[in-house]
Amino acid sequence: xxYRTVLIEANQIMLERLSSVIKNTPGxxxxxxxxxxxxxxxxxxxxxxxxxxxxxDNEKNGPLLSELKRSYPYASIIGMSRKWDSEAQSRxxxxxxxxxxxxxxxxxxxxxxxxxxxxxxxxxQSEVISFFSPKGKSGKTTLISNLASALAQRTGESVAIIxxxxxxxxxxxxxxxxxxxxxxxxxxxxxxxxPVTLKSYFVQVGDNLSILCxxxxxxxxxxxxxxxxTSLIHMAKSIFxxxxxxxxxxxxxITCTACEESDKTVLMAMVNGGYEVxxxxxxxxxxxxxDDYKTRIRPVFTRVNPCTEEERAAFSKALGxxxxxxxxxxxxxxxxxxxxxxxxxxxxxxxxxxxxxxxxADEIAKGKI
Length: 369
Ligand SMILES: Nc1ncnc2c1ncn2[C@@H]1O[C@H](COP(=O)(O)OP(=O)(O)OP(=O)(O)O)[C@@H](O)[C@H]1O
Ligand SMILES: [Mg+2]
Fold this sequence. Notes:
five-stranded parallel beta sheet, binds magnesium ion, 13 strands, alpha/beta, Rossmann fold, 2 domains, eight-stranded mixed beta sheet, binds adenosine-5'-triphosphate
C-alpha cells in the first residue's frame, strides 16, 4: 500500500518539482498539497495522511508542528529545508517530527528518510568521544575499533566511528574494508548533505556499527577544514547514539576542533618504557585551559603490565588526575587479530584486553565516562 503523503510548500516551482518526485516514487501517493501548515491544519482528516512533508524554511510552519502532530498522531512528519542545520533539526525533533530532508530530494532519499523515521534511527541524545594522543602508536585505533564494536553489541544502539586520522587513518584495515567514500568526500559535500545522505558515506559493518573511513591519499588531508569537521560532527550526532573519533596524534587545528566539539576526550598513551607519563602531563596541561576539563578529559593508559588497580592508582598519582582506565599488555592477541582483519573482542572474547574493553563499553553505556 502506498504512503498517503501531504506536501506543504509555498514555493510553486519547488512544489511542482517535489510533487513529481513523490508521484514517481513507488510506494508513495500524493494526497494533497498546501502552501503553509496553517492552510493544511484541520483539512486533512478525510484522507488520513501517513506522511506530512513540511517546508521548514517558512518560519510560520515551525510553531505549528506540535499542533500538526497532535491532530494527526499517526502521521510521520518530516521537515524539509534547503540547508541542514543542527539547531533547526533538534527543534524539529523536539516538536514531534521524525526526520529532516534537504530539498529538492530524490525518490531514493525520500524512501531512505521514511525508512529511518519509521525505525526511529534519528537520535535526540548522543555522545561524541574523541581519542587524542600526544604521540603516535599509542593504541588508539586498536582501542576504538574494539570499543565501538563492544558498545554496539552491548547496547544494541547505533554506534559510528569517524576516522579523523586524516593522513594515515587505518581504521579500514582493522575492519578489512575498501570504502567507496571517506571523510574527505563527506567533508567536501557536507553543506549539501542531510543526515540521511551523510549516512550513505559510512560503511555499515554490523547491525548497528558504521564507519566513516579515512582517505588512502595523505595529500587529501589538507582539504578537510575545521568548519567542515565541525559540521560533520554535528550532523553525525543526529544519526548515531555514540560517535567515536580516531585522530592523528598531537595538537593540530583538526585534532583540537574535534576535541572541542566532543562531549568527552579520551587522552591516551601506551606504556613503552619511559616518557609517556610526561607526554600525558604536558598534553593534559593544555587541555586544562577548558573550564570544564575535569568532566571532559578521561586519561587512559594501555599496554600496562601488571594491569592492576595499584598501577592505575600509580598513574593517577603521577598525572595528578584520575586515570579512567588501564588496558593490559596483550600484543600477540591484538596484533594477530589486526593482521587477520578481525577484532580481539570477537576473536578472543575471554582475553584480558577484550574483558577490559567490555568493561569500558558497559561504563560508557551507563553514562559513566
Ligand atoms: N594493549 C596493547 N598491548 C600491546 N600492544 C598493543 C596494545 N594496543 C595496541 N598495541 C599495538 O601497538 C601498535 C599501535 O597500535 P594502534 O595502531 O592501535 O595505535 P595508534 O595510536 O592508532 O597508532 P597510530 O599513531 O599509527 O595511529 C600496534 O602494533 C598494536 O598491535
Ligand atoms: Mg591509529
